[in-house]
């Protein structure tokens, strides 16, 4: 069989991220990011091997950015694309896995747009533009929420009046599913377990952060909820706060909903705790070492709340085969891993300081001490996971055409 190629696309309101992945290679053949779309300063930076270049997108249009991908793909692919995989943030309750995009799927993505007003509309634009440029090949949607559709009702329901769930979709959905799925699958390989097996607590710590309890390849609970604001402290997002905060701020300060939303999503988290110093964990770790009180507090709260979330999710599992750290912070910050695991001594978890200090850029590895359950650092690769899910769906469709149509 030929080495199949998938173009992975992640479209935001002002950006277009892409990667050309082959079935067999660990690294992208071509990857890049078009930014500042919607302005006259639109630009697309890309790299392929050692080549790095940029293209101006002067009309700022998504369609122009998408069209400028075509010659690049022709230059670096040397064979036809097999599929285009689109990352979509919210699939609501419609999607439990990768889905071939047709009119029905598009309508369902649109249906979920009220739950992700900043993301789903932009991703629908990306899908529509890509279908016009890359014709005659399957386009497949991969949802951040799909992996968590295996959560049982006691994990996904809020204690709210039933009609809000049944009529308005108010429930916990969870996000970062592609990453939690990828690292838990890799963990089984690393620990020599049966493929896809194991009881894992995963921590995806990037600009957005979430935890997940995964048993034998299924998400049983996760820290994010109806939106990606629930749960952990993040770069600029607050994570959990008292639900009465909204009415308190409205009553006492006269703040409107937009201002409160903006504060919780863009001015809080590490940035808010560090007195506005930074949302970047690297800056905070360095400032903490210099004695910056706000940076110290931000790091402490981040790690404590992360540990508390992992401890809470442990109740979803029959045992703990391992705790997995991933994402920019999880993969690269020995300090965050150390401070977090210190709060989890009750579970017998302990870190080996030398293994924890191994410089970033290393492959997946174990960093636990002595008899501790496994503690793993596993670089995430959401594009690889999307590629694999696209190809698996096509293989399934080839063997079960009737089921696919149903
Ligand atoms: P991601 O969204 O996965 O790219 O992760 C972005 C986050 O990773 C940012 O908050 C960075 O501060 C963080 N990060 C990257 N490298 C390091 C590092 N060496 N130490 C601490 N945090 C890091």
Q: How many beta-strand runs?
A: 14
Q: State the fourth-level CATH superfamily of the largest domain.
A: ATPase, nucleotide binding domain
CATH class membership of the largest domain = Alpha Beta
What's the rounded overall pLDDT mean?
95
Largest sheet: 8 strands, mixed
Structural class: alpha/beta
Report, as a whole number of angstroms, the end-to-end distance: 28 Å
Q: Estimate the strand proportion.
A: 15-25%
Heteromolecules bound: adenosine monophosphate
Low-pLDDT segments, ≥5 res: none
Give the helix tally: 17
- State the shape: globular
CATH architecture of the largest domain: 2-Layer Sandwich
Describe the structure.
By secondary structure, this protein is of the alpha/beta class. The chain has two domains: 5-143, 2-Layer Sandwich (Nucleotidyltransferase, domain 5); 191-382, Nucleotidyltransferase, domain 5. The chain contains 17 helices and 14 strands. It has helices spanning 62-67, 69-77, 103-111, 120-133, 153-156, 162-166, 177-190, 245-253, 257-266, 269-273, 281-289, 293-313, 327-332, 334-342, 353-356, 382-399, 401-405; strands at residues 5-11, 16-22, 30-35, 42-48, 51-57, 83-88, 99-100, 139-143, 199-205, 209-215, 218-222, 322-326, 365-366, 374-377. An eight-stranded mixed β-sheet has the order 5-4-3-2-1-6-8-7, with helices on both faces. Strands 11-10-9-12-14-13 form a six-stranded mixed β-sheet, sandwiched between helices. Helix 7 crosses helix 16 and helix 12 crosses helix 14. It is globular. The mean pLDDT is 95. The chain binds adenosine monophosphate. Residues 206-207, 235, 280-282, 285, 327-329, 332-333, 360 line the site of adenosine monophosphate (AMP).
């Amino acid at each position: 069989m030929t080495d199949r190629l998938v173009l992975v696309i992640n479209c935001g309101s002002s950006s277009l991220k892409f990667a050309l992945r082959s079935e067999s290679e660990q690294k992208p053949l071509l990857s890049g990011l078009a930014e500042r779309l919607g302005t006259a300063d639109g630009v697309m930076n890309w790299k392929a091997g050692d080549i790095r270049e940029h293209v101006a997108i002067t009309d700022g249009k998504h369609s122009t950015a998408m069209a400028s991908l075509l010659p690049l793909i022709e230059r670096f692919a040397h064979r036809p694309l097999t599929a285009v995989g689109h990352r979509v943030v919210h699939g609501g309750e419609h999607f439990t896995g990768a889905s071939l995009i047709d009119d029905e799927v598009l309508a369902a993505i649109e249906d979920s747009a009220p739950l992700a007003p900043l993301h789903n509309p932009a991703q629908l634009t990306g899908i529509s533009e890509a279908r016009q440029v890359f014709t005659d090949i399957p386009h497949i949607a991969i949802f951040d929420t799909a992996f968590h559709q295996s959560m049982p009702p006691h994990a996904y329901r809020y204690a709210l009046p039933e009609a809000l769930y049944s009529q308005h979709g108010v429930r916990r959905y969870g996000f970062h599913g592609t990453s939690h799925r990828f690292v838990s699958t890799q963990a089984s390989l690393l620990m020599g377990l049966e493929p896809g097996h194991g009881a894992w607590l995963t921590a995806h710590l990037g600009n957005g952060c979430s935890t997940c309890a995964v048993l034998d390849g299924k998400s049983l609970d996760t820290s994010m909820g109806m939106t990606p604001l629930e749960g952990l402290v993040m770069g600029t997002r607050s994570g959990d706060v008292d639900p009465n905060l909204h009415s308190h701020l409205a009553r006492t300060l006269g703040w409107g909903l937009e201002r409160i939303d903006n504060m919780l999503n863009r001015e809080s988290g590490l940035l808010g705790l560090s007195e506005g110093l930074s949302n970047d964990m690297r800056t905070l770790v360095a400032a903490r070492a210099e004695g910056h009180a706000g940076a110290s507090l931000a790091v402490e709260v981040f790690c404590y709340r992360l540990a508390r979330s992992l401890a809470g999710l442990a109740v979803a599992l029959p045992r703990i085969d391992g705790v997995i750290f991933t994402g920019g912070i999880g993969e690269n910050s020995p300090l965050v891993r150390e401070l977090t695991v210190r709060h989890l001594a009750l579970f017998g978890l302990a870190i080996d300081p030398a293994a924890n200090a191994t410089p970033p850029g290393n492959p997946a590895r174990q960093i636990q001490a002595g008899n501790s359950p496994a503690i793993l650092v596993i670089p995430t690769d959401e594009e690889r996971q999307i590629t694999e899910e696209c190809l698996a769906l096509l293989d399934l469709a080839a063997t079960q055409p009737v089921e696919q149509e149903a």
